[in-house]
Amino acid sequence: MLVHPNFDPIAFSIGPLSVRWYGLMYLVGFGIAYTLGRVRIAKARPATISVTALDDLLFFCVLGVVIGGRLGYVLFYMPGHYAAHPLEALYVWHGGMSFHGGALGVTLAILLFTRARKIPLFAFSDIITAAIPIGLFFGRIANFINGELYGRPTDVAWAMVFPRDDDHLPRHPSQLYEAGLEGILLFIFLFIAVRRFHVLRKPGIESGLFLLGYGVCRIISEYFRQPDIQLGYLIGGTTMGQILSLPMIAFGIAFIWQARRAP
User: How many angstroms separate the CA atoms of 91 and 226, rounded?
Assistant: First the structure.
């Protein structure tokens, strides 16, 4: 049995300014994902999107992730609590971000941006979705550092006791499982699928594969993750994360089907 390191939430301080690990991990994830996007645009032949367009979109994507992710957590996971304590919805440094909410925020940003700039939607979204697993990896590492979103009780050799767990039970380090599934495995899957199979290079295929792949990975990882205490298990023993992943799988299949039919 292992014990969570109980990291200091503050990575470093510069005078009165304190930088928290939670925000730092998100920043690193954004930075690497942005760099990957620039490389893909630079290598695209023929070029349909400029690097400048990605630069202009970055700010709106960050807003979409932060605002959408926080609103998604507030509305999907703890609506009663935040209705009684609305100001706490602004305390993002305490943790509590919903990927599904962040995905909706980024989707809205991309839709509005591509429409305003008259940029091909799926050609652009394919570049964005290819980089998202990198951000997901660092986001899950941030969850692990915070000791939040831990797993269900288990007796496996790598079970871990988390400081936020009042029961002090050995649990799955599910944050690391999700970092591996939603981050590393999904990134490798997209990288191999699109580059080895020419038919998958049609605009929209990669976006669909991402939605489908993430939905499947999230549903699997939820079997090891402790459900949020205020929600518990839902219909048929499912969790909120699994239910919210089902529409992603449906949209992913629809995008792939539509893109393959396109000339």
Answer: 23
